From TrEMBL:
<protein>
    <submittedName>
        <fullName>Biotin-dependent carboxyltransferase family protein</fullName>
    </submittedName>
</protein>
<dbReference type="InterPro" id="IPR029000">
    <property type="entry name" value="Cyclophilin-like_dom_sf"/>
</dbReference>
<keyword id="KW-0547">Nucleotide-binding</keyword>
<keyword id="KW-0067">ATP-binding</keyword>
<keyword id="KW-0378">Hydrolase</keyword>
<dbReference type="Pfam" id="PF02626">
    <property type="entry name" value="CT_A_B"/>
</dbReference>
<dbReference type="InterPro" id="IPR052708">
    <property type="entry name" value="PxpC"/>
</dbReference>
<dbReference type="InterPro" id="IPR003778">
    <property type="entry name" value="CT_A_B"/>
</dbReference>
<feature type="domain" description="Carboxyltransferase">
    <location>
        <begin position="25"/>
        <end position="304"/>
    </location>
</feature>
Amino acid sequence: MSRLMIEASTPLCLLQDAGRFGVRHLGVTQGGAADWCSMSWANWLLGNRLDLPVIEITLGGFAVVAQEDCWLALAGADLDARIDGQPLAPWRSFKLGKGQQLQFTQPLLGARAYLAAPGGFDAPKVLGSSATVVREELGGLEGLGLPLAKGATLSYHADVLPVREMSQEHQPDLRLNTPLDLVLGAQIGQFSGQSLFDVFNSRWTLDSRADRMGIRLLGKALQYQGQPMISEGIALGAVQVPPDGQPIVLLNDRQTIGGYPRLGALTPLALARLAQCLPGAQVRLRPVVQEVAHREHVEYLQRFSIR
């Protein structure tokens, strides 16, 4: 068994995996890594299954010390990671020697980094997943939905598999150079014509009122002209429009049902990019049909078959 002792942490540093599925009829949300692409690449670098538990480090403030020599992998945001003060870039596997410290200080590019260990970090499964959802008190190291805390021990038991190198072409671009794809939803035709123009021809600013439940977009107020809705199931990435006209993108820890009209839902790839954005960043939305979004998703998943 290999162990890491947590020397520093924040409420935003959580144990995550791919999330819980088949439980929303119980009122239990999905949870899981906000940037599933980076989580998957961190696991891929060590030859793990792509959905194994990793550490999601948001904005920095996290540090561990190795209790034995170990191999780890880092993907996602550049949070100024350092091993005993020496810079460590993401998108690579690396060795951490006994007594060495790995520290994450502040965002240089992106918001969330993912730290993986061979075979995944040890944690009990609650409803089929170790993903931490603080609001529902589920998942995490003890299964109680608690953030990672200073003094806790992270352990894993798997032997080191042949580590992999990730080519530059497969490293996700965390900058928002292209619009976020939105699959149009059932209520899209019940917004005013001007609102439909504004949705896709304006820049939206990410509000500071954001967490793993959702991100509010600030911009021109959208006008819904349809009838009041009965609450219905909420998909990951759904873009709701409350009465103030400011859209809200619902993320992994969202509620399971809602009654606000929706523009549609961001694609999984768009959500991964959004999860790496800091408050104040500006984004644009682009309409896409479901068939195109599905094809692009399948093509992206095929990248993980490379050796």
